[in-house]
Structures are given as C-alpha cells and as structure tokens.
Amino acid sequence: MLPIPHVQTLHSYRATVVPAEVAAEDVEGAAAAGLLRTIRVRAPHASHAVRAARHVTGLPVNHVERVED
User: Fold this and answer.
1) 17-29 core/surface letters (b: 16 or more CB in 10 A; e: else)
2) CA separation for the pair 35, 42 (Å, rounded)
3) Is the pLDDT of residue 53 over 70?
4) Which residues are CB-neighbours of 53 under 8 A, at least 6 positions away?
5) Distances 49 to 1, 18, 32, 65 between C-alpha atoms, Å
6) pTM of the model
C-alpha cells in the first residue's frame, strides 16, 4: 500500500519585497510610506510565503501578511 501524502491548505499572502536600490536604513520608512512593491503568493504558512516570494523575485522580503479570500 502506498503512503498517503500530507495535503496542506494553501492561503493567499501579500509579500512586501525590498528593491536593491533601497538602503537598509530606509526600508522601514519606505514600507510605512507604501513605496515598496508587493506580490501575492499562495503558501501553506507565512514562512513558506517568505521563501516563495524570495525565490520568485530574487529580492529580500520585508514582511508578509495573510490575505483572506
């Protein structure tokens, strides 16, 4: 008998990424002003969403927040 894989429910997350031209000391100010780019990813957990956003964009992720569909 084959093992049954564990299926995880995917949730939608909004990830805020930091462009290379934004200095580290300016990230929080730019985020507060809404100047950072966001992308939507689907993942089972927030930590997976951070990894997915980093993988897709190649940019550091400032934060992720779960978006209710």
Assistant:
1) bbeeebeeeebee
2) 23
3) yes
4) 13, 15, 17, 39, 41, 59, 61, 64
5) 33, 15, 21, 9
6) 0.82
